[in-house]
Specification:
Elements (H helix, E strand, L loop, with lengths): L10 H13 L13 H25 L9 H9 L12 E9 L6 E4 L2 E8 L2 E7 L3 E6 L2 E4 L6 E5 L1 E8 L8 E3 L4 E11 L8 E5 L12 E6 L5 E5 L13 E8 L10 E4 L3 E3 L4 E2 L8 E7 L7 H14 L6 H11 L3 E8 L10 E8 L7 H11 L8 E5 L2 E13 L7 H16 L10 E2 L1 H9 L5 E15 L5 E7 L13 E3 L2 E3 L2 E15 L2 E2 L4 H9 L6 E13 L5 E12 L4 E12 L5 E6 L6 E2 L4 E5 L5 E6 L28
Parallel strand pairs: 11-12, 20-21, 22-35, 22-36
Antiparallel strand pairs: 1-6, 1-7, 1-18, 2-5, 2-16, 3-4, 3-15, 4-7, 5-6, 8-14, 9-13, 10-11, 10-14, 12-13, 16-17, 19-20, 22-24, 23-34, 24-33, 25-32, 26-33, 27-28, 27-32, 28-29, 28-30, 30-31, 31-32
Length: 657
């Protein structure tokens, strides 16, 4: 009786299948007796089959990009479709310094390699340059970098590797070090008639427009996160001759751990025009233009699985939004998330323009230099007639006020319980649900996170708020627009919008933004009528009553808590679209640093979406966690008398923080 079907390959199932087979053959007995020798043979067969099935399953899984788990296999499968994973990225700092010297050399060259030592958090980091930097000497002073044109130094150690081409061998050109920043790789090829290091070859990422004489090379990741250099075959790229010497220089780096150093001490090597060693008369003092930043780790396995097929489908052409997302990740490794919006989707439309917003891995803004580099590189992929524009990042903050009820009989330290709740929320805040454009804050998941932290937690009542930061242009007339991308909750009594304090021209007191809804009935404005007063009193809208827009006003609050209107109708609030428009106003100062005014709104839905160019940020630091003793569950008040009830209603507070 042959086996015809396997629905399960677990050990017990395999063993039972063997016994079923033997039952159909009367020649054998005792196979059902666990103490028999035959039972041991059955166990052996089942184990062998189970192990073989497991290994076969693992081998098959590692043969497909979606199911592979080993990095070496994932990289190999991605390589088949022309994808090179991003390497580690060295943190880059911008510096400048002057070298005092008595040399008669007209030029001074800073040698490739170690330049300075950076310090941060009681830790020292090596910073290098991947190529020689030459400057002129004037009046005994050589200047390397300026405030407007600084010298870029990379965190890491500079290394060099040489190969001699031997066509008789199956030769591979492997760089022996892990942790290489591939963007710092520089390759020189010295032919039989060349001098010095030879000619510098250009790195390419595809074979488009590559001729048989093109002096180019490619790289690919191999085992243990190392890299291999690939040269032409005489058809695509120039073929190397026997005896040719290849010199590859590169920097190995600590990646994101190298971010932060802002103080540097000089440790470089200098040479004159005749290659003589030059010693400065005094140790150069390094001026930091920008601290080390943008260091990153090697691309993760999950990221490779996501982007490899998308870059392949893009075929090095930026047409769809998904194409831009993938290509920008490739040309700017510090990208955490990208939003791409076609101009035709805007109101009013702006045809022929693609608007790009980038959230970097470190920080909140892309530097002007990096923007220019990204736009320049995108020209190699984009279609003629399509313009790209990189917008400033817009952050939509989600905050919460949570009242967490706990059973005091199960809690020894309330502070520790609160710390665990904050830790759990921070873990959710770091999840992929939120940290991206188009991310979604899921209210039910947050409630579950809180409830599941500890069995002592009996329930929680959590209110959600959303916030945008307005960057004020102080001491000048300006207009502002803030889009939240989520419908606002309407409190007919007002107070849906609140802000931190600021001052305006002509008013010495600290003032705040607040709103007053426009109430209509049957399309007629009844804001100042008796019917509207009834709505204000009941805080609910009746039949035929609608609140879609509101008026933004500026108020001040005296020491006794009494408020007075400073300026009425300084802007509008669109509750349906989730937009605030502020008319012409002269803001002179802000309570918050960096000219920031935090403007908060209560959303209609507790599920918040980062729409289009809004990057969602779950702000735990500005959220409130209030621990409340559950006296009923603990048994202190069985009847429930005196139980502290927290309102789920979002009240109309006037000011924020």
């Amino acid at each position: 009786m042959p086996f015809t079907k396997f629905s399960n390959l677990d050990f017990d199932q395999i063993k039972e299948s063997i016994k079923d087979y033997l039952r159909a053959n009367s020649t054998f007995t005792d196979f059902d007796f666990e103490g028999s020798n035959f039972s041991v043979l059955i166990d052996t067969l089942a184990y062998n089959t189970y192990i073989t099935a497991f290994n076969s399953n693992m081998v098959v899984n590692e043969s497909f990009l979606d199911s592979a788990t080993l990095r070496e296999n994932v990289v190999s499968l991605a390589r088949n479709i022309g994808y090179v994973p991003r390497s580690r990225t060295a943190a880059k700092a911008s510096v400048s310094f002057n070298v005092q010297t008595t040399t008669t050399s007209p030029t001074l060259t800073l040698q490739a390699g170690l330049v300075c030592i950076g310090s941060a958090n009681d830790t020292s980091y090596v910073f290098s340059v991947p190529e020689n930097v030459t400057t002129t000497v004037k009046d005994g002073v050589a200047t390397f970098g300026t405030a407007t044109d600084p010298l870029s130094v990379y965190q890491g150690t500079f290394l060099s590797k040489q190969f001699v081409v031997d066509g008789s061998l199956d030769q591979r050109f492997l760089l022996d070090n892990s942790f290489i920043d591939s963007s710092t790789i520089v390759v020189y090829v010295k032919g039989l008639s060349d001098t010095g290091l030879g000619r510098e070859y250009s790195r390419i990422d595809n074979i488009l427009n590559v001729k048989s004489t093109s002096e180019t090379y490619l790289i690919q990741e191999v085992q243990d996160e190392k890299y291999e250099l690939l040269f032409g075959d005489g058809i695509f790229g120039k073929k190397l001759e026997d005896g040719t010497i290849i010199t590859a220089t590169y920097i190995i780096t600590d990646g994101k751990e190298g971010n932060g150093p802002s103080t540097f001490s000089f440790s470089g090597s200098l040479r004159g025009s005749s290659d003589e060693i030059v010693v400065p008369t005094t140790t150069p003092t390094i001026t930091t233009v920008s601290a080390a930043s943008n260091g990153g780790d090697i691309e993760s396995v999950d990221s490779i699985k996501y982007f490899a097929p998308r870059l392949y489908s893009a075929q090095y052409r930026a047409v769809t939004g998904r194409d831009y997302e993938t290509i920008i990740q490739s040309i700017y490794p510090n990208t955490e998330s990208v939003s791409v919006v076609g101009g035709e989707e805007l109101d009013p439309p702006q045809f022929g323009t693609v608007f790009i917003t980038i959230k970097p891995k470190n920080g909140e803004f892309v530097s002007d230099f990096d923007k220019q580099q990204i736009l320049s590189n995108l020209k190699n992929y984009s279609l003629t007639g399509i313009n790209q524009k990189i917008l400033e990042l817009k952050l939509l903050y989600v905050e919460m006020d949570s009242f967490v009820y706990y059973n005091s009989a199960k809690v020894t330290n309330v502070a520790d319980l609160k710390t665990n709740i904050v830790s759990g929320l921070e873990t959710y805040a770091d999840s992929k649900d939120i940290n991206k454009f188009g991310g979604r804050f899921k209210y039910s998941k947050v409630l579950s996170v809180i409830d599941n932290i500890d069995s002592a937690i009996t329930s929680n009542i959590t209110k959600i708020k959303i916030r945008r930061n307005l960057k004020a242009l102080t001491n000048q007339l300006a207009q502002y627009e803030l889009c939240y991308g989520n419908k606002f909750h309407v409190n007919p009594a007002g107070g849906n919008i609140k802000s931190t304090g600021f001052t305006i021209s002509g008013e010495s007191s600290t003032v705040y933004f607040t709103d007053t809804p426009n109430i209509t009935q049957g399309g007629v404005d009844i804001t100042n009528s008796t019917a509207a007063a009834n709505v204000f009193t009941s805080r609910t809208t009746g039949a035929g009553v609608a609140v879609k827009t509101g008026v933004l006003s500026i108020i001040k609050i005296d020491a006794g808590g009494q408020r007075s209107i400073v300026a009425r109708d300084v802007g509008t609030v669109d509750y349906e679209k989730g937009e605030i428009i502020i008319g012409t106003i002269n803001i002179t100062s802000t309570v918050k640093p960096n000219n920031i005014i935090e403007i908060q709104a209560f959303p209609e839905s507790n599920d918040i979406i980062g729409l289009k160019d809004l990057y969602l940020n779950f702000d735990i630091s500005n959220s409130s966690i209030n621990m409340v003793k559950d006296t009923i569950t603990s048994g202190e008040q069985i009847s429930g008398v005196g139980f502290k009830v927290t309102s789920s209603y979002t009240n109309g507070e006037l000011t924020r923080g």
